Amino acid sequence: MYAALIMLSLVGTIGIASCTSDSDDMDQPSGGNTAIGFGFTSQATRGTSTETADLKKIGVFGYSHTNAWSAGNTAGNSPDYFLNKAVIKKNGTWEYDGVIKYWPSDRKVSFFAYAPYSDVEGTFDEVYPDRETDVASSPYIKYLLPTDVTKQIDLLYANKLDMTYATSNAGKVPFTMKHALTKIGFTAKRDAADANSWLTVKVTAIEYKYISGIGTLNLEDGIWDVTFPAPGDNGRFPTFTLTPDKDGGLNPNTVEIKNTQTSTVQLNTNDGYFLFIPQQLSGRGTGIENTILNIYYDLVETTSGKIISEQEVKKYELKGFYEAGKSIVYNMTFNTSSNEVDLTLSQTIVDWVTGATMPNQPGGENSWW
Q1: For the segment 77-103, what is each residue's pLDDT rounded down to a tens digit?
Q2: Which of 29, 83, 93, 355 has its CA 20 to 30 A from that of 248?
Q3: Using CA atoms, how far apart are residues 304 and 282, in angstroms rounded to an integer?
Q4: pLDDT in tens, 178-208
Q5: Which helix (DSSP H) or strand (DSSP E) does residue 80 occupy?
Q6: Residues 120, 219, 171, 6, Cα dihedral to 10°
């Protein structure tokens, strides 16, 4: 997985080719024979979906219409300009295959973009609409979140409504891609007041239960429609787990928290951030009201490595909701002064933005238990 946090400034031109699946709309352009092009600016990205450390393929919908874009005006919102078109970076420029599209002289065009493009195997359950005859108030993506954290993707989206050549950037649509998911990381340290050197706390797993992994993203407003199981239907709630195993998402070099470890260490690997669908965590009325966060650990004799107590667990019922475009770090502070484990858990919440690194980034630390 590519885990780099990078700034992508992607501006290019449109390639010209023929493709019978596109509409042959050759309007007299209002932009002086200017083809529609794209310019992309992205927030930081991470995910196996990018084919290299740079974003290389973006899906685009384009709807032409006479009046201002209206989600309720389905009659005029057919995706006649771009139908889930792959816009691909080739030799430093951005191109798409198919009939060239010009800026129309008498209509507006509303654009919707997302990344990674849906031909990445196993990326999405569904991207709608899937044919030009479909009429939709706006396009959407149905996403099934992989339980393997290393296969979770950084889903990006953007839109520009009611565009004309005059409102474009010299014919290019100025997209700013946004994060559609919530990023979750973990840190740990020992309490500075914990002088108990003979015990080491080893984090063995971090587990989420009763959090939804199915949702539909509306590309017009970025709002998710999240699927929760009906009462008694617990099978549709998958379990998401980090472990120190190979590709398990936890760094085996940082999970042993000795009393000398009074500064914060990152527990998850750079590929081990959960990327969750934004959703309500508590009070859902689904039969299982709250999302559960379980932190498993062993209590180990420091010198010999002998396990004193195995697979202990601290359970937390999460409150509130996860927001799109937020980075959340759960900060664990362990204290073994009583020869047992006391765990204080706090969270740091910041905007998931360009150049940010987790967890060493600006933001206040707030205890919420």
Answers
A1: 778 889 899 998 777 677 888 888 899
A2: 355
A3: 42
A4: 899 999 999 999 999 999 999 999 999 999 9
A5: none
A6: -60
